[in-house]
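I had to read the description of the data format several times before I understood it. In essence, backbone conformation is discretised, so a fold becomes a row of integers matching the chain in length. I therefore recommend that a typical entry be quoted early in the introduction. For illustration, here is how one protein appears when written out as sequence plus structure tokens.

***
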Amino acid sequence: MSNLEIKIVSYSEERQILASIRKQVFQEEQNVPFELEFDGQDETAEHFLAYWQGKAIGTVRLRFLEPQTAKIERLAVLKEARGKNIGKQLMQAVLERAVQKQAKQAIINAQLYIKGLYLKLGFEPVGEQFTEAGIPHLKMIKKF
């Protein structure tokens, strides 16, 4: 998609934009409680923002559970921007960053409805389906 720009941003500087996107997607659309969505991990994560035609329309965050294990979380794309491969491009950017930082694997707790995207990106399901915030999830891992 042309006119798409993905940036790694400072959480302290872009907190309002990041929170606004996540609030719209997770709290308003999916009824995820505030305390689950905003879990106190944002300050230690790297945050990515996708801009389309100058407007912030998607985000994802990257944390490290161990020096070589990346955890990808909070992938969110605004409703009006879906269906344009923005989620996929955000994921590709965060995966590239994990490799740059010497990760040997990436873990994601995927909402079941979007499992296909992660399969296409090389993730494999691990374990049984589970429910978080009333939403079916599946743990998936990608080895680098």
In short: The mean pLDDT is 95. The chain has four helices and eight strands.
